[in-house]
Design goal:
The longest helix is centred in the N-terminal third of the chain and has 31 residues, at 2-32. Helices cover 77% and strands 0% of the residues. It folds into two domains: 1-58, Arc Repressor Mutant, subunit A, CATH 1.10.10.60; 65-212. The protein has ten helices and no strands. It starts with a helix and ends in a 5-residue tail after the last helix.
């Protein structure tokens, strides 16, 4: 029995240490920005050895990428966006209105959690190729998620038969990428809830116009 327990305890300790590092890194990136944050400072903030942070993440860019990834989905569980309950609901709810509401709510929650650290990552991207690549991958993933969303709605008979799914995916992806959230909250001073309502309204109107797009 002890042989079974030891690996579990070790995994729990590793997970706990990573959580402390990620929380500390999040605080420092938000307070000091990318340039003002060092791995040594993160280690001190997390009350762990500096070597622990270096061994676990290697570079500051890799640490920030992990911070962003965890903030987006909400935890360290290895389940991607499409496997999250809100996205499953957005693909399976009985009405299009419920699906759009789930999509808007899920997007709002992601941005409310991750908007600050995403802004830090975007600012650092020009000097960090790893972050630039991650930012572009995020944009492409957003489009893919929206394409899945609209394609499933069409397959379930919730859209007009003439709906242009590519137009829906491309246009709604522009509306829902992180840059748009940051622009809307800065330009208009919107709260996350106002952003959610805007997304829900926009997707609803787009669905109605999809048959005549292009």
């Amino acid at each position: 029995m002890s042989d079974d327990v030891k690996p579990d305890l070790r995994a729990a300790r590793i997970a706990d240490t990573e959580e402390k590092i990620l929380q500390a890194a999040t605080r420092l990136f938000l307070e000091r920005g990318y340039n003002g944050t060092t791995l040594a400072a993160v280690a001190a903030e997390a009350a762990v050895g500096a070597r622990t942070v270096y061994v676990r993440f290697g570079t500051k860019a890799a640490l920030l990428k992990r911070v962003v990834d965890v903030a987006l989905v909400g935890d360290t569980t290895p389940v991607d966006v499409q496997g999250r309950p809100w996205f499953v609901l957005a693909r399976t709810a009985p009405t299009l209105a419920e699906r759009i509401a789930a999509m808007a709510r899920g997007g709002k929650e992601m941005m409310a959690r991750a908007g600050g650290v995403l802004a830090v990552a975007f600012e650092a991207a020009p000097m960090e190729p790893e972050l630039a690549a991650a930012s572009q991958a995020g944009r492409e993933a957003t489009r893919e998620h929206l394409h899945v969303f609209w394609t499933q709605a069409a397959a379930d008979g919730l859209l007009p038969g003439s709906a242009d799914l590519d137009w829906l995916a491309e246009t709604s992806a522009i509306l829902t990428v992180a840059e748009t959230y940051l622009l809307a909250t800065r330009m208009h001073g919107w709260s996350p809830e106002q952003y959610e309502q805007w997304i829900a309204t926009s997707l609803t109107r787009m669905a109605g116009a999809a048959g005549t797009a292009r």
